[in-house]
Specification:
2 domains; 9 helices; six-stranded mixed beta sheet; 13 strands; alpha/beta; cell membrane; Rossmann fold
Amino acid sequence: MARLYTEDLSIGYGERLIVKTLSVQIPDKKITTIIGSNGCGKSTLLKAMTRIISHQGGTVILDGESISKENTKVLARKMAILPQTPESASGLTVGELVSYGRFPYQSGLGRLTKKDYEAIDWALEVTGTKEFKYRPVDALSGGQRQRVWIAMALAQETEIIFLDEPTTYLDLAHQLEVLELLQKLNVEQDRTIVMVLHDLNQAARFADYMIALKDGQVVKAGRCEDVMKPDVLKKVFQIDAEIGRDPRTNKPMCITYNLAKGE
């Protein structure tokens, strides 16, 4: 059994359910990517699994316990999330922003300890942002800022990291830079990575496990080879796709596609 999974999870806003009786497992120490069209419930699922929003039914289980019963600081030591649109860091230096990742470990006085500073420096080092430590976050490029936000998540020292579209608004080089960093964290430090990605080929290239959603339900979950199939993509995206192999990674990739006829 996986450390993290949902059972019959239902999530909504008001009376409208976005995710309906959803049961998924997140493989330990692997990279999981979630794909689906806009509004299908991808971001909503991430928020519920990290307790940013509440759910109307079912449960999210982590280490055998419902996360709804977990102490907030204890939960924040187990999982971190980088939302799709991080809050403004205006007026903060890089080091100050990354230090916020140490909140779950701080006492009532809120003072940083030697261990906190060591964790901050390590997070800056591993994300290649140490040289920016004293620079304003606002002065960085989009790719640099994204790496700093990831550094803040890493400073939490959690084994599970959620990221909602971490490559949004980045150019191709910076997209690859961020995804390769996350892959390195997974391979070298056994971090469990869960991320929503729009680009199908990036999702397949960097994932060990994929979850395809449509209207708040799982269409297919499993290995990339099982999810990146024409029938699955037709159901999820209403496209008629040609699937081949990436010549560099041997992962499945969408070569081309048309709108599915009759859809």
